[in-house]
Inverse folding.
């Protein structure tokens, strides 16, 4: 994408953040399947996930392409705000899972529980992103429809 409009620059940054998110999610998923890492290593990966999420959420909330898109479609504001309101709760959940991992004993129960918490979180995050993408698609479709 070679256009230099601020919207598209912000979009590129968000795509980088999404790649970082994808990388860390896959690393955790793999580590939870292999079960060879220490509890501290799993805790560190989960803490990194929390950091990536906070960065991604900030990007979406402040001056990201999401905010730009919403400014073109005021009727979407309530839905966008409801989605943004999920960010602090998801950041807190990621932190809680990381703390649970750091305090773990490495038992089978602990691995099962951590995997269960992580998978539930991935589902929640996926649902959230699906709704965001749907909202953005509607905004762009409307924008193109009204200007093109
Ligand atoms: Fe989001």
């Amino acid at each position: 994408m070679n256009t230099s409009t601020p919207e598209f620059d912000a979009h590129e940054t968000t795509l980088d953040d999404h790649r970082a998110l994808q990388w860390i999610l896959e690393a955790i998923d793999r580590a939870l399947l292999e079960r060879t890492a220490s509890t501290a290593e799993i805790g560190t990966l989960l803490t990194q996930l929390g950091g990536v999420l906070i960065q991604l959420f900030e990007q979406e909330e402040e001056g990201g392409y999401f905010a730009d898109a919403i400014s073109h479609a005021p009727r979407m504001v309530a839905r966008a705000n409801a989605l943004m309101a999920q960010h602090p709760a998801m950041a807190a959940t990621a932190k809680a899972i990381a703390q649970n991992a750091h305090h773990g004993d490495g038992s089978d129960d602990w691995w099962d529980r951590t995997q269960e918490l992580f998978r539930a979180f991935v589902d929640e995050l996926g649902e959230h992103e699906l709704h965001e993408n749907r909202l953005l698609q509607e905004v762009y479709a409307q924008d193109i429809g009204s200007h093109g």
Remarks:
- The chain has one domain: 6-147.
- The helical segments are 6-34, 39-61, 65-71, 77-84, 86-102, 108-147.
- The CA atoms of residues 62 and 68 lie 9 Å apart.
